[in-house]
Write a structure and sequence with these properties.
Elements: H1 2-29, H2 50-53, H3 57-67, H4 74-78, E1 87-91, E2 94-102, E3 111-117, E4 122-129, E5 132-136, H5 141-155
Antiparallel strand pairs: 1-2, 2-3, 3-4, 4-5
Length: about 160
């Protein structure tokens, strides 16, 4: 009877240890974090064109506030120029919708990429205009580099 109790305890310890091992090993070895749980459904941020986002009053207020004086430029304020399909991307461990859009009839010289998190209303954008580039939002240097990389891929990559 005692031997059976010892075996049962040993079995429980091994089973619980095996369940805890993947997280412990990841923490000890510095492995990548598991992918986050599926995000709650967003208000169609990943399937609508950028201009459609402006129908959300919170987004519109935040976006135009970040633009400041540049909100007077219709293509930036209204985001109504040509735009590829938005898609989900991971940047710095966070999930964003990548929106790209440009000024109608002047896409090469006036275009932008925007990362938008519909869950906490974070917006980061890289705007390219003929006279230079502009970072929108409070972005870290790493985020700025990622925005520039995404901009190059969207607007300067060779045609596929």
């Amino acid at each position: 009877m005692i031997a059976m109790q010892c075996r049962f305890r040993l079995f429980l310890v091994c089973a619980l240890g095996a369940l805890a091992l993947p997280g412990w090993a990841r923490d000890q070895l510095g492995g990548p974090a598991p992918p986050p749980s599926p995000a709650p459904r967003s208000p169609s941020a990943a399937k609508d064109k950028p201009a459609k986002l402006l129908t959300d009053a919170r987004f519109r207020r935040t976006w135009r506030g970040l633009l400041g004086a540049h909100a007077r430029e219709p293509w930036l304020a209204q985001m109504n120029g040509p735009a590829p399909e938005p898609r989900w991307v991971y940047v710095g461990g966070s999930r964003y919708v990548l929106h790209a859009f440009c000024k109608p009839h002047d896409c090469h010289d006036n275009n932008a990429v925007m990362l938008y998190s519909p869950f906490d209303l974070r917006i980061h954008a890289w705007v390219h205009r003929g006279q230079g580039n502009m970072l929108i939002g409070t972005s870290s240097p790493a985020m700025a580099g990622e925005l520039q990389r995404l901009w190059r891929r969207e607007w300067r990559a060779p045609s596929r």
